[in-house]
Protein: Dimethylhistidine N-methyltransferase
Amino acid sequence: ALAGTAADSQDDPLPFQDDFASSVLEGLSASPKTAEPKWLYDALGAKLFEAICEVDTYYPTRNEMTVLADRAGEIAGHLGNDIILIEPGSGEGIKVRYLLDALGGQVTVYVPVDIAAEQLVYLGETISAAYPDMLVAPVVADFTGTFEIPADLPPGRRVLFFPGSTIGNFEPEVASELLKRLREESRADALLIGIDTCKDEDRLVAAYDDPVGVTAAFNKNLLNRINRELDGTFDLDTFHHEARFNPDRSRVEMHLVSDRDQTVEVWGRRFSFSQGESIHTESSHKYSPEEFQVLAGRAGWRPDTYWKDSDGLFSLHLLKA
Ligand code: AVJ
Structure:
């Protein structure tokens, strides 16, 4: 069954628009210039991310799915019955299907939470059609802010499902705060979370600067979105995508680098770029299992167990509140 989609601002055709504007202006005024990665996911951005997951060099999605598929039975055994599964940043909702298939009727309610409203509505409809005995209760929200899990859910064991290493987009301290807040707000008992491990620079950079150019398009779409929604004047031909490994912080950074000195307008304000200056649009932090367990521990999560794929490229952790 499908419950109505809950939203922060039900009548607003463009929810988050004010947040988008103020966040972009603030990031462009900062030095170095930055943008929050969540703005990469407008309708086109969400599609481009789906395409990234199909690219040969982007291993995280595929390797995480093999862990989910190979360990499904074990995971099911750890989680128990009458599960309310809450997924922040549900996206296309492919991974959750592995889990739902493995868990059989153990999941009674699925609560996908996402900022990409159109994709979320579609996901709600398709998942509810595929799993008719389960209640699907979508929530349109930016999970980095406060969001409300629908109040009228049947009782059950609340499990947070946070795959994809999405948590890697946040600075470690912020990630820890977010995991704490998610635990408190969702009153979850367990957390099943995907974490990308650190590995050699070549493989990491190839994952974020793929030969097909899909990641470049995904990154540059931010400029397209700013032009469209905030009256921006970015010339996309004068910026290029760059993926940089930052070994000191164990992360891959995505940048949009200006190819020349130029001035750009956004919402009537002018921002100047010198040649080679970039907007830092995303970081993807990589953690060893032990490093991640320490981070999660600071958020009040106790490590239970974790699994890796057979190549050791990606890890899936189970933690308890
Ligand atoms: C969806 C945040 C996990 O950081 O690997 C993929 C996003 N950016 N390629 C990641 C992304 C560039 C992805 N996450």
